[in-house]
Structure formats: C-alpha cells, structure tokens
Design a protein that fits this description.
It comes from Paraburkholderia caffeinitolerans. The protein is an alpha+beta fold and 154 residues long. It contains four helices and seven strands; from the N terminus they run βααβββαβαββ. It has a seven-stranded mixed beta sheet with strand order 1-2-3-4-5-7-6, sandwiched between helices. The radius of gyration is 15 Å and the shape is globular. The two termini are 16 Å apart.
C-alpha cells in the first residue's frame, strides 16, 4: 500500500494501534452520540472494540495533533469505510475529503471494484459523500430507514 504521507498535504495519516483505541472510540462516540439518541440506538463499546480489532485503523493528524479517525475493512472486491470521524473544530477544512481520497487510492491500488459506507440520513457528511461520487445503494426498503448504504465505483 502506498504511503499516504507521500502525497503533499497539511494532514498526516498514521496507522493506529491499540494505544489509539481510547481516542478512536471517544471521538466516534462523541460524533455519533446525537444520531444514536435520535434514532433510538444504544452505543455498544464491546462491538466497537471488536470492529476496531478487525479493521485497518488510521489516525489523522494536523500539526502533530490527532484530529480524526479512519477505519476500513476489505471484503471481497470492496473496501468498506467503517468510520470517517473528524473532531469538532476541524470539519469543513478538507480533512474528510483527504480521508475519502486516501480510501479511494487504496481501493484502486488493491484492484478493488468499489467502496462502500453507511451514513445516518440526517448526517451532513452525506452531502460530502454525494459530491465525491457515492450513491445510495441497496433495496428500496433499506432506503427508508435511518441509515443509508452508499457505494462508489473505483
């Protein structure tokens, strides 16, 4: 896999370790908490830990400070983006676009066919995903729920 920091950017991306788990879970839970409440879901730390252990996890840094998390898994010919989390105060400045671009480059480098992600219907990040070529996928009934499944061809 190519080194993401070889691409000129003000952001740095590094592999996460278990030492980063607390940051990753805290940021994800803080960012997703309102959606979980609105959509009557319960946060399960044990499920997040299991998913973290099964994913390729990355920490996004700006000037040496951790500001985001990217978690991906590869399944067959798809790269699944499990989390794109950006800390409040750093959104809207290209951090999410940078992480999605990295994911697309990795999928292309691996010879995969598509990228997939899920997003709450009321999450403003869905607009970014649409601008970056993702489209709502799945059966019609799945489109009526609180979470949208989105895909993009590589």
């Amino acid at each position: 896999m190519f080194a993401p920091n070889d691409i000129p950017s003000r952001f740095q991306l590094r592999h996460a370790t278990m030492d980063d788990f607390e940051f990753a879970e805290s940021l994800t839970r803080r960012n997703m908490g309102g959606y979980y409440v609105r959509h009557h879901l319960i946060w399960r730390g044990d499920l997040f830990l299991a998913s973290y252990r099964e994913s390729e996890n990355f920490i996004l840094e700006l000037d040496g400070e951790a500001i985001g998390v990217l978690r991906v898994t590869q399944e067959a010919d798809s790269l699944h983006i499990r989390d794109v989390q950006i800390a409040e105060g750093y959104r809207g400045n290209g951090a999410g676009t940078f992480l999605l671009d990295m994911s697309h480059r990795w999928a292309r480098e691996r010879g995969l066919r598509e990228l997939q992600l899920r997003v709450f219907v009321d999450n403003p990040a869905a607009r970014l995903y649409l601008r970056m070529g993702y489209r709502v996928a799945g059966p019609r009934l799945a489109r009526l729920g609180s979470i949208r499944h989105m895909t993009r061809l590589v």
